[in-house]
Amino acid sequence: MKTRTIQLFLLLLCCFAFTACDSNKSKIEEKAKQFTEALKTKDVATIYDMYPNSKLANHMTLTTNVAQGDLEVVKDEATGNYTANFKNARDQKLIFKVTGKDTYQIIDSYGFFDIEPLYSDLAVKTGVPLKKLSDQKLKELFKDDSPFLSFIKNKYGGLTELNLSYFDGVYTGNYNLNIVQIEQNIKNEGDFPVKGSDYDVIFSFSDEGGNCASSTKTMDGVDLAPGETFTFNFQLTGYTTAAYNHQLQWTVSFNQKGGGTMKDIMKKAKFTGNEYNEFLQQQSKNKSKAGKKSSKK
């Protein structure tokens, strides 16, 4: 009799647990529909209340209207969280946490945060598994100062550096007019075109005889195709004595404006599609080294 009573008790307990689980699922399904409705009507207060970290998103994309059977709620037994899976092209998901009796909060999502086109393109070209990473992980991955973007810049940033040279600088003096005519060639030694708006050319003049103080002259850059040269031709005043005594000297430097941006890298890099995996391997090695150092202490 006791055994039968215990079995009946356990059966009732299982039924209760099953019912409670089903109750959570149905309520979370309603919450998921409520959230998508808030997105549709742009009810920001409700969106932020249900999903506080949605504030991280620049913009969120609304799923298509959720029809019967288009939404499936699954419980993660390991964490106790529930995933509301939307059956659509983006495989969108909302992760719910039970915060109290009949209260739930969205703690993460998949496919709801819109990624900037630049980073979406970068993700595809570098092998980032967009559908497997949550919105918040992707947001962290593509932050301006994120380790992943730093990895990409370190790997390909050299492609955006100016590869300009200067050669065959000559001058002629007009001593009556107290001017020196300067001619200076520059060349694009790189494999990519260079825009004049991306750099300045700085001339630094000096008089070896010490008759004139050093000075600089800045010229606007010019557009150069790979291998193309250009000759700067201009007049310089105050250095006729130095020119007459063959003591006029100058150097040329190039001041790059910006450069090294992700836009520049995207234009020039030949991605392999394995960069994201390389990044993960590097992160793993760094953690391993850090762990060894910590254990030695």
From TrEMBL:
Keywords: Signal. It comes from the Bacteria. The keyword Signal applies. Residues 1-20 form the signal peptide. This is Lipoprotein.
